[in-house]
Amino acid sequence: MVMANVGWHLSLGATEVHVYLDDPEDSVADQLEVVDRVNVIRCDDAHWDRMTVSPTGTRQTRRQGVNATDAYRRTKTDWMIHLDADEFLMPERPIGQLVAEYARKGRFLRIPPWERTYLTSSAPQSLFEGGFRLPYVGKLKDDQNTFWRATPFLTKGLTGHSVGKALVPTGKDWRIGIHSPREGERRLLGDYVPEIALLHFDGMTPLHWMLKVLRYAHLPREVVEGMLGGHRREQVLMALRRSQSHARLLQFHNRLKVTDGGLRARLEARDMFVDAPFEPAEQIAAHLGYTPDLSVDGFDALLRERASDLLDRLK
């Protein structure tokens, strides 16, 4: 997933890619270090000492912000965006052109999210298959009329975040948060760029999503409450109740992540659905020199190796 993300953004013209690896022993570091324009930072004890942050006593979101600000201080580019490995930019035109048109002094650019949704409950074959849901603009009752029983587990119709990410001008005395920059304690204002979408694969596979919420479910309650929005907390609580059954947890996943005919019609009526396939393999291969395994089976095989502790809890 990391290699695919890097290859895709290099294909869009990124002049620098800074990759921060939570696991300093992750083997992907060796693959990344030979890729031109990529800077790999292994988040080992020496790194966290330099950041003056405790890796065990600091929330994940805080660590991400610290790393994003570190990249912001390092970069020699004019603009920068912080992305997770499951987020891919999709511009309608070259990003440089769009930045030149939308940028205003002292403001950042807000990139709105499109969240991947499956079109059927059948097992997917490719990491990127499906369509995309867009966040709604409306009142809660509209959300309930659209999503019915899934409403408590969503924010503006999405399972992940609905605010998007910030494309920020560099050279400022700003701190970079996950979604927005700050100047001191002041949250800065941004302008939406409708011609760039942030494709968010909140769960690269059904198994990936299930393990993601289960991992949250086994953190201390106070940590979860500090990290997660209300809808994600509801997902975690429901996942915990269903965590003894793989079938029941998959059923819950499908309730939230599958857009069937009826729901699709309701979303299309509100301009909240895009059926635009994302097929990045060719561009990724052009910049990496090979095509990573983009299959669900390959990805899940790695998950099973790395998350056997969580999988043991599923029957």
Characterise the protein shown here.
The two termini are 27 Å apart. The strands form four sheets. A five-stranded mixed beta sheet has the order 4-13-6-7-14. It has a four-stranded mixed beta sheet with strand order 3-8-5-12, with no helix packed on it. A three-stranded antiparallel beta sheet has the order 9-10-11. 41% of the residues lie in helices and 17% in strands. The protein has one domain. The chain contains 14 helices and 14 strands. The chain is α+β, with helices and mostly antiparallel strands. The model has no long low-confidence stretch (mean pLDDT 91).
Could you give a quick summary of the protein structure above?
It comes from Donghicola eburneus. The protein has 315 residues and is α+β, with helices and mostly antiparallel strands. It has helices at 2-11, 28-32, 45-51, 60-74, 95-102, 140-147, 206-217, 221-227, 230-241, 246-257, 261-269, 281-288, 296-306, 308-311, and strands at 17-21, 38-42, 79-81, 87-91, 108-111, 113-117, 131-133, 165-169, 175-176, 181-183, 186-187, 190-192, 196-200, 273-274.
Strand content: 15-25%
Quote the distance from N terminus to C terminus: 27 Å
Radius of gyration: 19 Å
Q: What's the total number of strands?
A: 14
Largest sheet: 5 strands, mixed
Question: Any low-confidence stretches, pLDDT <50, length ≥5?
Answer: none
Fraction of residues in helix: 40-55%
Arrangement of strands in the largest sheet: 4-13-6-7-14
Class from secondary-structure proportions: alpha+beta
Protein name: Glycosyl transferase family 2
Pfam family, one: Glyco_tranf_2_4
Organism: Donghicola eburneus
